[in-house]
């Protein structure tokens, strides 16, 4: 091995602590880049393959009841490649050993066996026999969550008739990668299942013989989706079509889209921060090393090493740091990717995960890490190369201090000499001080951005449950029912309060914009389920008007006072012009609200309800559920208390994981910046500090000078960190907002305090580690060192 | 010893230190001969080190010419100077300038790695009497030993000239003598032209020739009729 290479390796070993501090920051960037890139690819590839192999449809529509021959007309729409009509319905399930009701979504299987579109993948057992009336295949997660195997059975209330259904097999479908039941906030596979039932049995159960109520289309390559949707709506309108929609709006698919978008945001936002900080740290440390090795550089040149060889020597030192960071990042990234893949397996029901090791991702992240280190090292290495040997052999001129404006201002403050030393040094190297401050501010920002989600989720829960949906349970009726049904419900065991609401599918239009939503019609006295406006007040939709969720209003570009067009997709499909009376704060879904009596008057109908909200006495819960399992005409139940508990548990777990990860990241950044900063200062000021010790300054006084600069910068970085953190948090709320949910920007003083505390403590610890070196300073040796 | 190895003509060097111009060399004409051991004497700032740096290709003259044999050093660009230092010149500095992270052998190897026809590092260290200290690091050696490593490093490439800037400046007389012995030995054994800068006038007595500097000019050049061995020199 060449002597210069030996020097390189020994220098690297000597600098291990500083190199490690940088490598950890760089490694974070590599790991996050790698993880998000790999998971992004895995999700995209898996979804694409699954959709293609199992022919996920391009367009979907539900309708009240369309005659079977309409299928031929749908197939004739230009651009339609194939049509799948089916019967779908919702049923209450009685699962052995489970007190609460569960909800099943029945989907018919054509007589020939599997459908042409949205083809389920048989995972175990067999398909139900075409003639069977009591056989179903269920989705695999539902079977697993309830401990079912093929051959097991459970009861279902099919259109008022309680039937025993036997499971013949388990399946997975591209339509249900993210399987979320009505009213659920996140998947609960024990409480919601997909039941594939032979067409004849399903049609009989839902009174759909010779008819269908759901249709899926695949399109030809050159088809115009919007046009096909319009044509399909035209055909289904007379039969109570609820409005066709494309793949991107399909529920399961939009959840995956949201996740993919988050991964992309993650890959774009975080790694550049780490790479930037790493470049700065490499620059700071290398500049100091080169200053220290000035005479060695002179020597290398004197004995005949070329500029390029000297430059390369220092670039390679930065390269070794980068390689250490890359190795750490590869390790952490692979581990994280697998951990995330396991997490995805819990949330997404894929039959397989195409997890190709993407050599591109490894190569790109390594290249970026090397480039970051090279960028940081470049200037110093070039300066080393340009150093003339004759000058390099002489000690460097003392840094030039001058009395500037700031200096005079400092003088006016009558600071102590050590304080002056600290402030002059900051002013002398403003770029370095600024970047150190920025690095520490970014650490604070990362913490703020990570912990704010905790408060945001609390706010979501508070608005969703404590303020808006205060009922324990909701009953969903298969068909809208006269309000007299509420009397029936009130007589059920344990029911304390009952409220009825009516849901109506509608298309809202304002100017060129339109959106399909479910409008909730509510009596003004509703108290279990409430509507909250932007100021937190409970509001009731004034008669003759409509209230819109703020995100819905934004999508329609509608303000309070604007008049929007509302086309109801149910009943007589009438269109009305309604003024927007106000906006509603809502983080789940896109809600629209109208007065109950107004709707009944508009439709000239006797009052009807689609749901009943209940407040129940927990002591009678078992008896209530036992009765619900038998109740005819019930399409589903929503257990809000359960839902809330599950949500809180999952969130609590995730918050702990996320806070730990981000706090670790913030600490790594802080330590990387503060430790290296203090080491560089110790190295620069060793003589100065030793002189002060010789002049009679105490250890404490001398360490105050050493620690002072870093701590002053750390304190100054806090407000900047709060601002940057708020900006990141804001961009996260913007980035994560979709039709499905929104995250409010909730920034509490405690969030800032916690972020600052973590960063300042990490900073003090890092500087104290360097301070210990000061205690061991050999005063005489330092004074003798020629520099 | 008749053939000049170095020849300078009206060599000048002006440093611009912000406001004032400093004439480090003010028109130096000098010939140095192959195999010669020359001592350059003079007070601080008299221009000796500047001359040595220019002769060694570490620095450039502001005006005038300098030749190494037939090579016009003043016409060489950076790459040519690097090549020249690599192939022809050995340096010994006052503060040794060893790389602290490399052992004695590795410090020598630093040079042999890039030289055309180098000695084995162990052989070079043997020549300065350090065969037993091959794997010691600079911090584990005395000042005299460190300087001898520096000499070994300088001679390992078999240079034609050895340029020594205050080689004994940081040493006591006993270790200083050891270093001078090593220099004399190399000069005699290999015929390496050796130029030594020193403050220490006593050292002149081991030289073939003594050149005195004052204010950037040569004030005298004399030949030593009777040379003394380093151990006979009275410090």
Helix content percent band of chain B: 25-40%
Second rung of CATH, namely the architecture of the domain at 4-93 and 160-232 in chain B? 3-Layer(aba) Sandwich
The Cα radius of gyration of chain A reads 34 Å
Enumerate the strands of the largest sheet of chain A in spatial order, edge to edge or round the barrel: 3-4-9-6-8-7
What is the N-to-C succession of helices and strands of chain B?
A: EEEHEEHEHHHEHEEE
N-to-C span of chain A: 30 Å
Instruction: Give the oligomer, counting copies of the same chain as homo and different chains as hetero.
Output: heterodimer
Summing up helix and strand content along with how strands pair, one would put the structural category of chain B as alpha/beta
What is the CATH level 1 assignment of the domain at 4-93 and 160-232 in chain B? Alpha Beta
Number of strands of chain B: 10
Envelope shape of chain B: globular
| Amino-to-carboxy terminus distance of chain B | 29 Å
Q: How many H/I helices of chain B?
A: 6
The major sheet of chain A is characterized as:
6 strands, mixed, barrel
What is the CATH topology descriptor of the domain at 4-93 and 160-232 in chain B?
Answer: Rossmann fold
Largest interface: A-B, 26 and 30 residues
Proportion of residues in extended strands of chain B = 25-35%
Strand line-up in the sheet with most strands of chain B: 6-7-8-3-9-10
Shape of chain A: elongated
Count of the domains of chain A: 4
């Amino acid at each position: 091995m060449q002597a210069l290479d030996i020097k390189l390796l020994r220098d690297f070993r000597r600098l291990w602590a500083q190199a490690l501090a940088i490598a950890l920051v760089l490694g974070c960037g590599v790991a996050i880049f790698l993880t998000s890139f790999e998971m992004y690819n895995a999700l995209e590839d898996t979804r694409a393959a699954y959709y293609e192999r199992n022919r996920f449809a391009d367009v979907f529509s539900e309708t009240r009841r369309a005659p079977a021959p309409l299928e031929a007309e749908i197939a004739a729409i230009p651009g339609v490649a194939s049509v799948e009509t089916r019967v779908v319905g919702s049923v209450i399930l009685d699962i052995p050993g489970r007190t609460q009701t569960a909800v099943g979504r029945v989907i018919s299987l054509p007589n020939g066996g599997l459908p042409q579109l949205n083809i389920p993948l048989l995972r175990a057992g067999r398909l139900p026999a075409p003639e069977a009336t009591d056989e179903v295949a269920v989705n695999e997660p539902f079977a697993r969550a309830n401990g079912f195997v093929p051959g097991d059975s459970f009861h279902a209330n099919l259109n008022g008739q309680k039937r025993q259904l036997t499971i013949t097999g388990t399946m997975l479908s591209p339509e249900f990668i993210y399987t979320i039941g009505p009213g659920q906030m996140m998947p609960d596979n024990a409480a919601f299942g997909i039941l594939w039932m032979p067409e004849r049995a399903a049609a009989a159960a839902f009174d759909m013989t010779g008819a269908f109520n759901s249709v899926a289309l695949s399109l030809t390559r050159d088809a115009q989706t919007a046009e096909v949707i319009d044509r399909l709506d035209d055909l289904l309108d007379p039969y109570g079509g609820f409005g066709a929609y494309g793949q991107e709006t399909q529920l399961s698919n939009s959840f995956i889209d949201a996740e993919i978008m988050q991964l992309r945001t993650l890959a774009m936002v975080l790694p550049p921060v780490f790479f930037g900080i790493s470049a700065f740290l490499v620059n700071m440390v290398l500049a100091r090393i080169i200053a220290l090795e000035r005479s060695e550089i002179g020597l290398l040149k004197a004995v005949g090493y070329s500029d390029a060889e000297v430059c390369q020597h220092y670039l390679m030192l930065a390269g070794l740091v980068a390689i250490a960071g890359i190795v750490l990042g590869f390790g952490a990234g692979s581990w994280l990717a697998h951990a995330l893949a396991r997490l995805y397996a819990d949330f997404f029901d894929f039959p397989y995960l195409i997890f190709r090791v993407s050599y591109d991702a490894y190569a790109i992240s390594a290249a970026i890490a090397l480039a970051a280190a090279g960028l940081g090292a470049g200037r110093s290495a070039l300066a080393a190369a340009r150093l003339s040997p004759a000058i390099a052999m002489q000690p460097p001129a003392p840094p030039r201090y001058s009395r500037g404006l700031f200096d005079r201002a400092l003088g006016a403050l009558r600071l102590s000499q050590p304080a002056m030393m600290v402030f002059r040094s900051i002013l002398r190297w403003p770029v370095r001080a600024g970047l150190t401050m920025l690095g520490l501010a970014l650490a604070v920002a990362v913490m703020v951005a990570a912990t704010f989600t905790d408060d945001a989720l609390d706010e979501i829960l508070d608005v969703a449950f404590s303020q808006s949906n205060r009922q324990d349970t909701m009953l969903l009726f298969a068909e809208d029912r006269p309000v007299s049904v509420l009397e029936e419900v009130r007589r059920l065991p344990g029911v304390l309060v009952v409220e009825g609401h009516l849901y109506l599918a509608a298309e809202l239009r304002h100017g060129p914009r339109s959106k399909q939503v479910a409008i909730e019609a509510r009596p003004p006295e509703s108290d279990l389920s409430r509507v909250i406006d932007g100021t937190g007040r409970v509001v009731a939709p004034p008669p003759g008007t409509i209230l819109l969720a703020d995100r819905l209003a934004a999508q329609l570009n509608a303000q309070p006072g604007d008049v929007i067009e509302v086309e109801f997709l149910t009943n007589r499909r009438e269109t009305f012009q309604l003024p927007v009376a106000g906006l509603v704060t809502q983080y789940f879904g896109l809600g629209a609200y109208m007065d109950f009596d107004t709707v009944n008057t508009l439709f000239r109908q006797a009052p009807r309800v689609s749901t009943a909200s209940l407040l129940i006495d927990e002591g009678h819960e078992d008896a209530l559920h036992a009765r619900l399992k038998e109740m005819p005409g019930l399409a589903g139940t929503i257990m809000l208390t359960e839902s809330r508990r599950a949500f809180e548990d999952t969130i609590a777990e995730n918050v702990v994981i996320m806070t730990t990860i981000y706090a670790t990241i913030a600490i790594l950044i802080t330590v990387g910046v503060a430790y290296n900063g203090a080491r560089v200062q110790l190295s620069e000021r060793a003589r100065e500090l030793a002189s002060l010790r010789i002049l009679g300054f105490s250890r404490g006084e001398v360490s105050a000078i050493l620690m002072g600069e870093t701590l002053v910068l750390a304190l100054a970085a806090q407000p900047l960190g709060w601002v940057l953190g708020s900006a990141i948090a804001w961009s996260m709320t913007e980035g994560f907002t979709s039709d499905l949910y929104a995250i409010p920007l909730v920034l509490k003083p405690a969030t800032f305090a916690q972020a600052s505390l973590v960063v300042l403590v990490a900073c003090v610890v890092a500087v104290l580690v360097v301070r210990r070196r000061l205690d061991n300073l050999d005063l005489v040796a330092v004074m003798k060192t020629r520099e | 010893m008749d053939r000049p190895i170095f020849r300078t003509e009206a060599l000048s060097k002006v440093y611009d230190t912000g406001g004032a111009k400093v004439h480090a060399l003010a028109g130096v004409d000098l010939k140095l001969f192959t195999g010669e051991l020359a001592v350059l004497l003079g007070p601080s700032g008299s221009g000796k080190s500047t001359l040595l740096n220019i002769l060694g290709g570490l620095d450039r003259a502001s005006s005038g010419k300098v030749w190494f044999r037939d090579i016009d050093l003043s016409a060489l660009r950076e790459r040519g100077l690097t090549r020249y230092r690599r192939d022809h010149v050995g340096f010994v500095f006052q503060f040794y300038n060893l790389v602290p992270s490399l052992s004695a052998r590795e410090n020598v190897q630093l040079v042999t790695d890039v030289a055309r026809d180098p000695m084995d590092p162990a052989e070079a260290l043997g020549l300065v009497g350090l065969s037993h200290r091959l794997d010691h690091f600079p911090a584990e050696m005395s000042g005299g030993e460190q300087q001898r490593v520096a000499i070994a490093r300088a001679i390992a490439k078999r240079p034609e000239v050895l340029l020594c800037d205050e080689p004994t400046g940081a040493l006591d007389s006993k270790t200083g003598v050891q270093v001078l012995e090593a220099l004399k030995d190399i000069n005699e054994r290999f015929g390496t032209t050796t130029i030594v800068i020193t403050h220490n006038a006593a050292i002149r007595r081991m030289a073939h020739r003594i050149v005195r500097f004052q204010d950037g000019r040569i004030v005298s050049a004399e030949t030593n009729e009777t040379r003394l061995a380093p151990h006979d020199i009275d410090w």
